[in-house]
Design brief:
The chain is α+β, with helices and mostly antiparallel strands. It has helices spanning about 40-50, 60-75, and strands at about 1-5, 10-15, 25-30, 35-40.
Length: about 80
């Protein structure tokens, strides 16, 4: 599980071993809303197209997705 902080939001990505990126799940938390929100990768893609779908800001989703891609596709160090 990788943990990132974006603005005031904390994002924790989790994905089953050897599963595709489509199986990733993210836990978003922010002190100002005092709750945790769980989104699947697919939920986030829907939210990026419809801002009214979520209380998580679009820029947080954008960065979280970029971090997931980097984690998933970054070449292993030699």
């Amino acid at each position: 599980m990788n943990i990132y902080t974006i603005d005031q939001w904390t994002v924790k990505w989790s994905k089953p071993a050897n599963a595709s990126i489509n199986k990733a799940v993210a836990l978003f938390s922010c002190p100002s809303i005092k709750s945790n929100i769980i989104y699947t990768y697919e939920d986030i893609l829907v939210s990026l197209n419809d801002a009214s779908y979520s209380s998580v800001p679009k820029n947080v989703f954008d960065i979280a997705i970029a971090m997931l891609y980097q984690q998933e596709y970054e070449p292993l160090a030699a």
